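Tutorial, part two.
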Amino acid sequence: MLKIVGNIIWLLLGGIELALAYAVAGIVMIILIVTIPWGIGAFRLASYALWPFGRKTVRAPSAGSILGNAIWIILAGWWLALGHLIAALLSAITIIGIPFAVAHWRLAGLALRPLGVDLVDADAPAPVDSVEIQGPP
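Running the prediction step on this input gives:
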C-alpha cells in the first residue's frame, strides 16, 4: 500500500515531467534510427521514472557497453541526469521528500548509464548473474 501512495505522490511532484523527458529522448533516438537501442533504454527508464517505488534496477555484468553509454551521455544523458539532480535537491528540502530525493539520485545514475539495465519487481529475487544498482558511481 505504501508503494502505491509513494508512487502517486511521486507522480504529482514531478514524476510525469521526468518520464516525459525520457519519452522525448526515446522518440528522438528512435527517429535517428541508428540510435534505436538507446531509444529502447530511454523508454524503459521512462516507465521506471513514472512508477519507481516497488521496483529495482539490476545490471547484468556482460550487458551494455562503455562506448554505447558514452554516446548516450553526449546525446541525452547529461540533461536527464541534471534534471534528476535538481529534483533531488528540491525534494531533499523536506523530511517527507527525502525518499523522493533518493529515488532521483538513483535515476540520475541510470540516466548516465542506461544500457544493460533491467527493471525487476523489488520483491522478486534478482537473477544470479546481475548486480543491484544503488546509485551513481
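The mean pLDDT is 83. In part three we will examine how such features are distributed along the chain.
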